Here is the input.
Amino acid sequence: MQGTILLVEDEAAIAAFVQTALEREGFAVEVVEDGRQALTCVNRALPDLIILDLMLPGGVDGLEVCRAVRRMPTYVPIIMLTARDEDVDKVVGLELGADDYITKPFNTRELIARVCAVLRLAYSRATTGEPERLRVGRLEIDLTGRTVTVGGQPVDLTPKEFDLLVFLAEHPGRVFGRETLLEKVWGYDYLGDSRTVDVHVQRLRRKLEEDPHHPRYLLTVRSIGYKFAREDVYSG
Here is the structure.
């Protein structure tokens, strides 16, 4: 796998380590050390992926960079680097919009696996000739623009919420266990807790369902996992 990666990291030793590991895998890597430089690079030429440290000097931190990138019309995958465990909930939660995170210290194998998984998912969406939209009831999913509306009203989803929704909606009526969803949506042998899936489903229900306690779209299959309701899903 090849591509251009923007690495935003102010610790020189970590930046050199990551750059070397990625270049060995065939990636082109541009390194900057603060948020302002990162935004300048992104505005000049969009990378295929951004590896972004959460804590950056210069007044523009990783949170602000991530928000700015998410406001751009073209979707760029982001992997967030965080030095403290307590930052993890922010990264995988609603606020940041990162596609994945990795906590320092990390090893080369883990880093490369996550980079390749995120890029593979992004590339597959762009090259498989999938329909641009999925519609069921009042719910409409724009696969190209990565947006969702319910009854014509936009719904703000995080990248992983969107990916989970799309995966389930593309397989209506099929039941998936939590471990399978972690593999298919998160894209690698996830090291965390399978309850991550439960949390994301709960958030999706609060955002999409008229009555989250009696969902229409995202259904629980007891002792197994989840499925998208077997309704007429229109693509186009």
Remarks:
- The longest strand covers residues 4-8.
- The mean pLDDT is 84.
- Helices lie at 12-24, 35-44, 62-70, 88-92, 108-127, 159-169, 178-186, 195-208.
- DSSP finds eight helices and 13 strands in the chain.
